[in-house]
Amino acid sequence: MMVVDVIFYAFAAVTALAAFGVVSSRNQVHSVLFLILTFFSTAALFVLLQAEFLAALLVMVYMGAVAVLFLFVVMMLDMELSELKEQAINHLPLGLAVGAVILLELVVVLSHSHGHAVAAATVPNTLAIGRALFTQHLYPFELASLILLVALIGAVVLTLRERKKGAQRQNVPQQIARTRSEAVELVQRKPGEGA
After folding, report:
1. Residue 83 scores a pLDDT above 60
2. What is the dotted CATH code of the domain comprising 1-81+125-143?
3. Where are the extended beta strands (E) located within the chain?
4. pLDDT of residue 194
């Protein structure tokens, strides 16, 4: 067994364990940190597979932006965990059905992929990804971005809740309508007085 194989299996094991940590952790912050570890170890696997562009993209876009955004949202939201657990139990049959379909698809893909060797790359992977993405798969790429936008809007709508009583709110029209005399107070000081 070569050193590269050992490194590959080590990063693959870390990826699998971190992905399991994402879905099994009870603390949302820990789940996001496991997600960041999953992204990092997946990027290392991409480097081992000589797909440096995908590795850099994964580190810059997902670890640098998406995971940090997830962490920020999780830490800033005041979430009621009891309500979320009740909703999760209500949707458990649907979640198990979707999981079973995904597992069946994985089994079918893996059972039909044996014996197919990957052809040696004659074109750099960045150029190949660009050509495939913006020629053959342009509409699915745009559709995926639209789905992500809808998911982002849905997440914002689902997390909006009524604020607690006594919470201060910003009233933008009132702030814009106030005059200088309401906002600024001029104080006369005698010479020699401290601040």
Report:
1. yes
2. 1.20.120.1200
3. none
4. 64
